[in-house]
Amino acid sequence: MIVTRRAMGLGGGLFAVALHGAARAQEAYPGTRPVTVVAPFAAGGSTDFVARLIAQELGARLGGSFVVDNRAGASGTVGAGTVARAKPDGFTLLMAPNSTFAMAPFLMSNLGYDAERAFAPISLLATNGMFVCVKSGFAAKTLPALVAQAKAAPGRISYGSGGVGVSNHLAVEIFAAATGIDLLHVPYRGGAPAMQALLAGEVQLSFVDTVTALPYLQSGELRALAVTTAQRAAQAPEVPTIAESGVPGYRASTDFALFAPAGTPEPILKALSDAAVAAMRSPQVRERLAPLAIDPVGGSRAEFAGYLAEESAKWGAIIKARNIRLD
């Protein structure tokens, strides 16, 4: 068999291409290709902050570029839908609060994606509690006193929220159901208008994110009757939990989690999870989150299934019982 120089050159070129392709295939994730982290709410809020924080940390730990893309709308389901339809290759991720992944599926009849099967969880990143806030001159000085006052005048005490179906609406609904009281819901278009309504006396009560409430608690304009988390807030340790105040087992918070599209290769999911857990458990991240009263979690993928089942059952039950809908 005669092999020409031309054939030898061609064969060598093909061999080089094959080697190059193999090297690229074995290149550590994410390599030089940027990863998009979709934050399904507008820039400037707590979801956006946590998304940018985890994007920065993942980039530093995995040696790549992670870029946040804000895609707001429909309780975060617009952005979530974008990720659900993305190629499952690890280059499009979702950083969403539980109002998107554990509440919206029960509030909306047509998400445009299967919430149970569309995503692969990576990590429960962080949690942010709420204070049960009233104006400083409000008659009830404790949560049991508020419950007694509400029972004496059903439907007379009003509470403000950032809108129908958001965390601080549903958290009050669970509290009202657990204590057997009837409160008047006044929804606003966002947390800021709801806070202004409370300060102006348009409503008597509101469950307010800890970071938003703290300055008003410190100034004395508002008083916290309780906190919604399982443990007391480090920033206001004198404020009891709702569970301590006569509602055993009560817990409600805004939780942030990281997801990839279902079908993303297991080695990529593991790399992302390991990096996310290490980041959220690091002292520097804890220090950055402390001023916002956001508590880092850094939960593993194995732990996420139990958490999601519990969250979905809790929020789904109250949404169905109270017939709360967004569409």
UniProtKB/TrEMBL annotation:
Q: Where is the signal peptide?
A: none
Q: Which Gene3D superfamilies match?
A: Bordetella uptake gene, domain 1 (3.40.190.150), Periplasmic binding protein-like II (3.40.190.10)
Q: Which residues form a coiled coil?
A: none
Which InterPro entries does the entry link to?
BUG (IPR005064), Bug_dom1 (IPR042100)
What Pfam families does the record tag this protein with? TctC
Which protein family is it in? Answer: Belongs to the UPF0065 (bug) family.
> What protein name does the entry list?
Tripartite tricarboxylate transporter substrate binding protein
